[in-house]
Amino acid sequence: MYDRFFLFVESIIGLADGERALLRDAFRPVSLKKNGYLVEAGQRCTEVAFMVSGKLRVFHFDGANEVTCYFAMAGSFITSFPSFIRNKPSNEYIQAVEDSVLLVVHRDELERITLLIPQLQLFRRILTEEQYIAAEKRIEMLQTKSGQERYDLMMRYYPEVILSFPLQHIASYLGITPQHLSRLRKNR
What we know:
With 188 residues, the protein is α+β, with helices and mostly antiparallel strands. It has nine helices and eight strands.
């Protein structure tokens, strides 16, 4: 269960054997059933999770409509960043799209092991920067690209998302209706 986790971490920073043991002790396995929540709006998000298996999505409500902001698949980290960083209630939901297994660490434990493994500061900074860049790219895409262009970009860079998540979630992420997405897919 921890092999993929260590491969991911060690693709960014090196770890000594003792440091691997510290991380293994800090991250605990959690199973989420399909449609279960890692965090719900109104809750404080106090944990970061590494996805061992499964699929999750981050979404919020814009009036009566769900707006999908992010997709996460096995081999990635996920949290409600605004809530986690500011220690404020989340305005977003993180929901399992299918049964999922996560390795989860609480904020306090993450801070403690970061003091013991100084390289984790670099690791955390790189992950935060990557998340920021992804958010900026999504904003730019929504502001400057047509629905067709957004779909084409997603097909080019994230085909596994298009093939793995329900149509209504993909349409919401792209800022179009499910009907419009169906027409775009038909025209391909």
